[in-house]
Structures are given as C-alpha cells and as structure tokens.
Specification:
By secondary structure, the protein is of the alpha+beta class. Helices cover 27% and strands 33% of the residues. The chain has one domain. Strands 2, 3, 4, 5, 6 and 7 form a six-stranded antiparallel β-sheet that branches. A three-stranded antiparallel β-sheet has the order 1-9-8. A hairpin with a 4-residue loop joins β2 and β3. The radius of gyration is 17 Å and the shape is globular. The N and C termini lie far apart (43 Å).
Amino acid sequence: MTTAQPGSDLSPADGSALEAKIATLVANDQRQRQDNTPVVLEEHEINAYLQFQAAPLLPVGVTQPHVQLDDGGQITIQSDVDLGVVSAATPRGPFDPMRYLRGVVPVVAMGTFDAQNGLGQLNVESVSVGGIPVPLSVLRELVASYSRTETLPDGFDVNRPFPLPYGLTSVTIDRGHAIVIQ
C-alpha cells in the first residue's frame, strides 16, 4: 500500500483560500476592528499555501513544508532542510556536531501549540532529523538560524511565548483545522 505524499492533493486555489482569510484578518487588524467571529483555517489550505504561495518566502534550504493538526492542540511540522546551509550560517567550533552535518534531510517536530490572551506558546515534545531523534536544542538552533533579522538578531526562540500577529486573541487547534479569534 502506498501513502500519498504530503501536499499531493493540494491546489493553488486551496492556498488562495487561506490567503483571503489572512487578508481579512490583516484588514481587521489595520482598522483595529474587534471581530470575535471564528475564522477556520483548514489544514489543507495551510499546506497548499506553504507549497504554492509561500514557497518563494521560505528560507533557502527549506523545502516541502507540511503541517498536521490534531485534537488537543497537537501539531506536527515537517520539512526537508539542507543542513549545509544551516551549518554555514553560524560560526562553529571544531567539536560542534552541527559543523559536520550535510545534506538535505527531513526534519520533524511534534508538540502542542497553545494560544490565548494574544500570546502563543509552542511546546515541542520531540524532534527528529533524518528519522533520528535529536535533542530539542537542534530545533532551537535550526529555527534561530533561519529567523535571524536586524530586529531579531538572535532569531526566534521556540521556547518563549510570542505575541500573536494581526491582533489575534486565541487559536484553537483541532484535527484538520485551526480556529482563530481576533
């Protein structure tokens, strides 16, 4: 029995549906309009958006992103990552194992996402690189490496709560969808 590849049944129209929902949320935020109407973001829309519309925005070396949403806030995020790009982005000592990692490998992170009162919190439970379980510090380093900017020189810290964008107040994750409240 063969399993469908993530994203094999997605279309650009699915991604456009998510784009339209995001545009509405952004417009509401810019008008400072409080709208407690739930907006449902479907898992297939998120994955189509990542595959089609967001592909040019992904960091160099990150391809094939896929998100799986499950009951109780459970979330699985996977992507193929070029470890050579990550390794080259950060100065490394001779005994740092990340210095020697190369190749494109699947990276999978599993955990929960909780978002209330305008703050989001990731609770990463496991990470694997190329199918091998690795310490959570590897994920922290990958995310920090890819998210460094002038305004965020250390990159995004997956261990810290963060403000939700667009004036969102809460996000509830259930099987196959996320429900956002603005």
